[in-house]
Write a structure and sequence with these properties.
The complex is a heterodimer. Chain A is of the alpha+beta class. Chain A is about 25% helix and about 25% strand. The chains are: A alpha+beta, B alpha+beta.
Chain lengths: ~800, ~290
C-alpha cells in the first residue's frame, strides 16, 4: 500500500506504519519544552571555560589567582588540579580534560572556573592568565603527511589509514575520467548549544543532567576523570536542541562534574553560540582524488580513489568516519576492480568527528560528480549510466561484502526521476524574492538559468566493524487510573528526530494499549547505544518491541493459567480490544490480568559484523540504506547567486514506521545538505575559526530552502524489526552532491569544491586543482593505526 | 550600570550631556549583539526608543524628514514613494529585526554594511544632530567618517535624517551569499534625478565607509544627455555605455577580502548591480512616461 494512503487521522492511537503527530511537537512549538540551557536549581553555580587562542603552543604556566580574587568566584581548576584520569575520548582516550603541557587546537580547554553568576564566571575565565609558548602548527591535511611535519599527536600524524583492494586494481578500461574534489568543514550547528547541570549527591557521587546523544558512553568517559565508579556518575537526559553528531563527544560534562564535586554545589555550564563552535567536533574536511574507468557501453570497470580527511587535533570518531568514507567511495555502484586508499590525519585544526552522513557525504560529492563526468565522456544520459551500474541485493562491494539485505537503489533512483518537476514560470514573471539573491533585490530575472542535477548515495545503518552494538529497553504494563498503561524506559536519546513518537507507536502496536508513558532517558536502565548512525529506530525500536513481546508472553501465560485452568485453548492467543483471545474466544480482560504488573527488560542486537582484513576485505556493515535527490536550481549567471527551486528526495527506509517523520527527516536532511553545497563552512585561518557566529556561518533560511517533494521506498530489511532501516542520514548524503550537479548543469562550470561560492559560479575562482594525490602513509596494510573499539 | 529612559528629546539631551558614558540605544538590534558577545560594555544605556520627536516622519514640500527612531517596518508601510529606501528596509535582517531596527541605529553604528546608508548617500541626505545647546545638520559624508566612525559628539543624539525627494526612479540592491538575513557583501543604491539631470550612485560594504561613484555619475548623466533620455524617457542608452557605467562604478569600489566575500567578487558585483540598476531606472522612467501618456 502506498505510504500516502496510510496517512490516517493520527492521534493517540497511531500504530506502526501510520503517520503520527510528534509527542514532543506541541510543547516545542509553544516554547514550553525545557532544553538543557533551561536547567536551573536553587543555589547553583555557573561554570566557564578558558580556551586556548593558539592552535599549537606549550603551556608554560596557568595563573588562576587573579580569577579567584574576583567577586563571586568560587573555584578554578587547571590540569594540575585534576583528581583522577586526565584524558577522555569516544574510542581512544587522547583528549585532555584540561590541557597539560601543550595545546593542540585553538579552542582547547585550559582551565575552568565556577562563580555565582554566569557573568562573573565569564569575567573570571577572562582573568585567568596563561603563559603560552607558541609552537609551529600543522594546519593543512597534506602538510601533516610530510616527513618533516611536526607530530601533532604522540603517535604521529596518521590517525588511520584504510586500504581496500578489490579484483585487479590495475584493470584497464576503455574510458577513464579523473577528478579532484574538496569538501569544506561543515558545522552541525545545533540550535541548542551545549548545556548541562551537575549536582553533587549525598553518596559522594554526582548527577549530571545533560544534552547528549549517548548517556552511557558519556558515563564511561566521565567516571574515570572524576575518580568515581560508573555507578556513582548518574546521567539524565536534558532537552536536546538538535545534535547531528555534535553531541556524540563529551563537551562540558566532565568540567561541570569536576566543579560540582570540588565545590559541593550544583554547577551549570551552557556554551554561547560562539563557544559552541569551539565546544564540539565538526564534519571532516576532505580532499578526494578519483579515477573512474568504464567500458564503452558504460559498465564500470575500475575505481581508484585516494581520499584524505582532516581529523583535527584529537581522535574522536575519526577511525569510523574514514572507514565509512573509504568503503562508500565508489558510490552505490557495482565495480569489479578497485583500489581505495583513505587516510585520516591529525592536524592542529579543531577536531573533526561525527556529523550526519559520517564520511558518506564527502565521498558522495566526488562519486556523483565522477558519474556525471563519465556520462558526458560516454555521451550517455547520467541517470541511465547510474542505473546500468547500480547496486542490488546480491551485489559484491569492494570489501568483498555481499549485500544480503534489501538494496532497492534502482527503484529509489527511478522514483526520484519520476517526482513532479517544479513550475517553470519564467523568472521575469515571478515574485522577485523567488529569484536568486532573494530578498536582496538584485535582479529582475536577468541571465537566470535553470539547472537540474541528480545524486544517488548510500550508507550503513548502525555500528560497523565488529562492534557489539546493543540497545536495552524495559517495558511495564499495569493498570492505571484510566485504564491500562504501558511504561517504557530506554536510555535512547530523543534529539528532535522523533524517536519517542516511534517508540510509542511500537508499544501500541505490540500491546494494543492507548496510553504509553515514557520515562526520562537516564543511566538507571542499560545502554541504548548512541542516537547516531541512523540506528535508533532499528535498535531502540527493536529493544522496545522485544520487551513488549516478552510482556505479551507473560500476559498470555497469565491469561491461559487463570482461564479454565487445564482446559484446551480454542486457538493461538492474540490481543484485541483490550482482551486476550484464544482463537475467537475471549479468555481474559487485559486490565484484570495486571495484578501484579508485568515487566520485561530486553536487549536488542543486530547481526554481528566483522573487521576488514589485510587487503581491506571483510563484512564490516550491518545493512545499507539508499537515497536519491534531484535538485532544480536557478543561477544568476552574472552575480553567481543561487535559488534552489526544488529538492526531490527518495529514500529507502525498509519500512516507514512514521511516514510523516520520514518526510521530516528527508526535508531536514535536504536542508543540511543544501547548506553544505552553498553556504555552510567553518573558515579556518591558520587553524583559527574566523566565522564563529550565525552572522558569518550561514545556515539556509526559508528563502534558501525550497519546497521538498519526496517519496518513500519500502522494501523490508530481513531480520530487522518491522523490516525497518534508519532514516536520519539518507537525504543529507545526497543533497549536497545533487545541488552541486545542478549548479554544474546551469553554469557549465566544473565546480570541484563545496560549498560552491559566488566566485566559483561567475568564474572569478577556477576549479580547485591538485599537484597529485597525497602520499600514502607508511603504515602496515589497512589495519587501524591503533585498535578501533 | 545605569539605564535611562527619558520621555522627551529635551530630557534625553540633558541626560546625554550629564552622562556621556551612557550609550544611546533604540532598537538595540546591533548594539545588544555586541554587548551579548562581550565585545562592548557601555557605562550605561540611554533608551531613545520612546522619544516622540524621533518617531516622526514629516514631509514639507519635497523635503522628507525621517525621525531617527522610526523602525524599518514603518518605513516600508509609510514611505512607499521612497522606493530605494523601502527596498533597503526590506533587506534588513528578519521581520523581528525590522520591527525594532532604525535608520538612526544604522547611522550611529556607522558600519559600511548598514543597509540604509547607501540609500541616504544616493539621496544626498543630511543628518540632523541635537545637543542640549543646539542643533546642527551635516551632509551624510561629513557624518560618516570611516568604518564605525561618525561625527557624533559625546553630548549629541541623532534626531533625524532628511533629503529632497528626487524626481525619478531609484533602487537599492544587496548581494549576500544567503537569500535573506545576510550582511551585505556589496550594496548599491542608484537614484535618478530628472529635474537636476543627475545620476547618483552609492556603494556599501565595498570600502571603509559608504562610497559614491562621482566619475560614473558624471558619465551616466552625460550618456543620458547624449541619448536624449533626460527629455525623452523612451530614448535608449547604448549597451556599451551601460557597460562602461558599470565599469566606472566598479572602479569606485575599494573592497577587501574577508570571511564574507572576496575583493574581486565585490568589485564584480558592483559592476553588475550598477548596470542593472541604471537599466531598471531607465525602464521604470520609460514605463511611467508611457503610463502617463496613455
Amino acid at each position: 500500500m502506498p505510504v500516502t494512503d496510510r496517512i490516517a487521522e493520527a492521534g493517540k492511537g497511531a500504530i506502526v506504519g501510520v503517520s503520527a503527530p510528534r509527542v514532543d511537537g506541541t510543547p516545542k512549538v509553544l516554547g514550553e519544552f525545557a532544553y538543557g540551557s533551561d536547567l536551573w536549581v536553587e543555589g547553583m553555580l555557573h561554570g566557564a571555560t578558558v580556551r586556548s587562542p593558539h592552535p599549537s603552543a606549550r603551556v608554560r604556566h596557568v595563573d588562576v589567582s587573579g580569577a579567584l580574587a574576583m567577586p563571586g568566584v568560587r573555584h578554578a581548576m587547571t590540569a594540575a588540579d585534576l583528581p583522577a584520569g586526565r584524558r577522555y575520548g569516544l574510542d581512544y582516550a587522547d583528549q585532555p580534560v584540561l590541557a597539560e603541557d601543550v595545546v593542540r587546537y585553538a579552542g582547547e580547554p585550559v582551565a575552568i572556573v565556577a562563580a555565582d553568576s554566569a557573568e562573573e564566571a565569564r569575567a573570571a575565565a577572562a582573568a585567568v592568565r596563561v603563559d603560552y609558548e607558541v609552537l609551529p602548527a600543522v594546519t593543512d591535511m597534506e602538510a601533516a603527511l610530510r616527513p618533516d611535519a611536526p607530530p601533532v599527536s604522540e603517535r604521529g600524524n596518521v590517525l588511520r589509514h584504510v586500504r581496500i583492494e578489490h579484483g585487479d586494481p590495475e584493470a584497464e578500461a576503455d574510458v577513464w575520467v579523473e577528478g579532484y574534489y574538496e569538501v569544506g568543514m561543515q558545522d552541525q550547528a545545533p540550535l541548542g548549544p551545549e548545556a548541562g547541570l551537575a549536582i553533587p549527591a549525598a553518596d559522594g557521587g554526582v548527577d549530571l543532567y545533560v544534552s547528549t546523544q549517548w548517556l552511557h558512553s558519556d558515563q564511561k568517559q566521565i567516571a574515570p576523570c572524576v575518580g568515581l565508579p560508573e555507578s556513582k556518575v548518574r546521567l539524565h537526559l536534558a532537552g536536546v536542541g538538535g545534535a547531528f553528531g555534535a553531541r556524540e563527544d563529551v563537551h562540558m560534562h566532565i568540567h561541570a562534574c569536576l566543579l560540582a564535586l570540588a565545590t559541593g554545589r550544583p554547577v551549570k555550564m551552557t556554551y554561547g553560540r560562539e563557544e559552541s563552535f569551539f565546544g564540539h567536533v565538526h564534519r571532516h574536511p576532505a580532499r578526494i582524488w578519483v579515477r573512474t574507468g568504464a567500458r564503452r557501453d558504460g559498465m564500470l570497470v575500475n575505481c581508484r580513489v585516494r581520499l584524505l580527511l582532516d581529523g583535527g587535533a584529537y581522535t574522536s570518531s575519526s577511525p569510523a568516519v574514514v572507514l565509512n568514507a573509504s568503503t562508500f567511495a565508489p558510490g552505490p555502484y557495482e565495480v569489479p576492480n578497485a583500489l581505495i586508499e583513505g587516510t585520516c590525519v591529525y592536524t592542529n585544526n579543531p577536531p573533526a568527528g561525527a556529523m550526519r552522513g559520517f564520511g558518506a557525504v564527502q565521498v558522495c560529492v566526488a562519486h556523483e560528480a565522477q558519474m556525471d563526468r563519465l556520462a558526458a565522456a560516454l555521451d550517455m544520459d547520467p541517470v541511465e549510466l547510474r542505473l546500468k551500474n547500480v547496486l542490488h541485493t546480491g551485489s559484491v562491494l569492494p570489501t568483498g561484502q555481499v549485500i544480503h539485505g534489501s538494496a532497492p537503489a534502482r527503484e529509489v533512483l527511478e522514483r526520484c526521476v519520476a517526482l513532479p518537476m517544479p513550475s517553470d514560470l519564467p523568472a521575469a514573471f515571478r515574485d522577485r524574492v523567488t529569484l536568486p539573491g532573494g530578498a536582496g533585490n538584485v535582479g529582475r530575472g536577468e541571465h537566470v538559468r535553470r539547472g537540474v542535477g541528480y545524486a544517488l548515495g548510500y550508507k550503513n545503518i548502525a555500528y560497523s566493524e565488529g562492534y557489539d552494538d546493543s540497545s536495552e529497553a524495559r517495558v511495564r504494563l499495569e493498570r492505571g487510573p484510566h485504564g491500562v498503561v504501558a511504561t517504557v524506559h530506554s536510555a535512547a536519546v530523543e534529539v528532535g528526530q522523533g524517536l519517542q513518537t516511534v517508540l510509542a507507536q511500537i508499544v501500541r502496536t505490540e500491546l494494543g494499549v492507548d496510553e504509553v508513558v515514557q520515562m526520562g532517558a537516564d543511566t538507571e536502565v542499560g545502554s541504548a547505544g548512541s542516537t547516531s548512525a541512523s540506528r535508533q529506530t532499528v535498535m531502540a525500536g527493536g529493544a522496545v518491541a522485544a520487551a513488549c513481546s516478552r510482556v505479551r508472553e507473560h500476559l498470555f501465560a497469565r491469561a491461559a493459567a487463570r482461564s479454565h485452568a487445564g482446559a484446551t485453548l480454542a486457538g493461538p492467543l492474540r490481543l484485541a480490544d483490550g482482551r486476550v483471545f484464544a482463537g475467537d474466544v475471549a479468555i481474559g480482560v487485559v486490565a484484570d490480568l495486571l495484578d501484579p504488573p508485568l515487566e520485561a527488560t530486553e536487549v536488542y542486537r543486530h547481526r554481528p559484523t566483522a573487521r576488514l582484513d589485510g587487503r581491506g576485505q571483510g563484512d564490516p556493515h550491518v545493512m545499507f540504506a539508499f537515497g536519491a535527490m534531484r535538485a532544480v536550481v536557478e543561477v544568476d549567471l552574472d552575480l553567481g547567486l543561487v535559488r534552489v527551486v526544488q529538492l526531490g528526495g527518495v529514500q529507502d527506509v525498509g519500512k516507514a514506521l512514521n511516514p510523516r517523520g520520514v518526510e521530516g527527516q528527508i526535508e531536514g536532511g535536504a536542508a543540511q545538505g543544501l547548506g553544505l553545497a552553498l553556504l555552510e563552512e567553518i573558515q579556518l585561518r591558520d587553524g583559527k575559526i574566523a566565522n564563529a557566529s550565525f552572522t558569518d556561518y550561514l545556515l539556509p533560511t526559508i528563502l534558501d530552502m525550497p519546497p521538498v517533494v519526496s517519496a518513500i521506498v519500502e522494501e523490508p530489511e530481513p531480520g530487522s524489526p518491522y523490516g525497518a532501516k534508519g532514516v536520519g542520514e539518507g537525504a543529507t548524503i545526497v543533497a549536497t552532491a545533487a545541488v552541486a550537479a545542478a549548479l554544474r548543469d546551469a553554469t557549465g562550470r566544473e565546480l570541484s569544491r563545496v560549498p560552491v561560492t559566488p566566485d566559483d559560479l561567475v568564474g572569478i575562482s577556477g576549479p580547485r586543482t591538485s599537484a597529485g594525490p597525497a602520499p600514502i602513509p607508511d603504515v602496515p596494510g589497512p589495519r587501524p593505526v591503533y585498535e578501533y573499539r | 550600570m545605569q539605564f535611562f529612559r527619558p520621555s522627551s528629546l529635551r530630557e534625553a539631551l540633558e541626560i546625554r550631556a550629564a552622562h556621556p558614558e551612557a550609550m544611546p540605544i533604540a532598537g538595540g538590534t546591533d548594539l545588544m549583539v555586541e554587548v551579548n558577545f562581550g565585545r562592548r560594555r557601555p557605562g550605561g544605556f540611554l533608551d531613545v526608543s520612546r522619544l516622540p520627536e524621533l518617531r516622526e516622519i514629516r514631509r514639507e514640500g519635497r523635503t522628507v524628514r525621517l525621525g531617527a527612531g522610526v523602525p524599518y517596518a514603518r518605513i516600508i508601510r509609510e514611505l512607499p514613494g521612497q522606493v530605494a529606501l523601502t527596498q533597503a528596509a526590506r533587506t534588513v535582517g528578519s521581520p523581528q529585526i525590522r520591527t525594532r531596527g532604525t535608520v538612526g541605529g544604522n547611522l550611529g553604528t556607522g558600519s559600511p554594511a548598514g543597509d540604509a546608508l547607501p540609500v541616504l548617500a544616493a539621496y544626498d541626505a543630511r543628518v540632523v544632530l541635537a545637543s542640549a545647546t543646539g542643533t546642527r545638520t551635516l551632509p551624510w559624508h561629513d557624518f560618516l567618517l570611516g568604518p564605525k566612525r561618525t561625527a557624533l559628539a559625546p553630548d549629541e543624539l541623532i534626531v533625524a535624517t532628511e533629503w529632497e525627494a528626487a524626481d525619478g526612479p531609484g533602487s537599492f540592491s544587496k548581494v549576500g551569499t544567503r537569500n535573506a538575513m545576510v550582511i551585505a557583501i556589496a550594496g548599491l543604491s542608484l537614484q535618478l534625478d530628472g529635474a537636476a539631470r543627475r545620476v547618483r550612485v552609492a556603494l556599501g560594504s565595498v570600502g571603509p565607509t559608504i562610497l559614491r561613484a562621482p566619475e560614473a555619475e558624471a558619465f551616466g548623466a552625460g550618456v543620458l544627455d547624449e541619448a536624449g533620455a533626460w527629455s525623452d524617457p523612451r530614448a535608449r542608452v547604448p549597451e556599451d555605455a551601460m557597460a562602461r557605467f558599470g565599469e566606472l562604478v566598479a572602479e569606485a569600489a575599494r573592497p577587501i577580502d574577508d570571511v564574507r566575500g572576496t575583493a574581486a567578487y565585490r568589485r564584480h558585483a558592483c559592476r553588475v548591480l550598477a548596470r542593472r540598476a541604471l537599466a531598471w531606472a531607465l525602464d521604470d522612467r520609460r514605463a511611467a512616461a508611457m503610463e502617463a501618456a496613455s
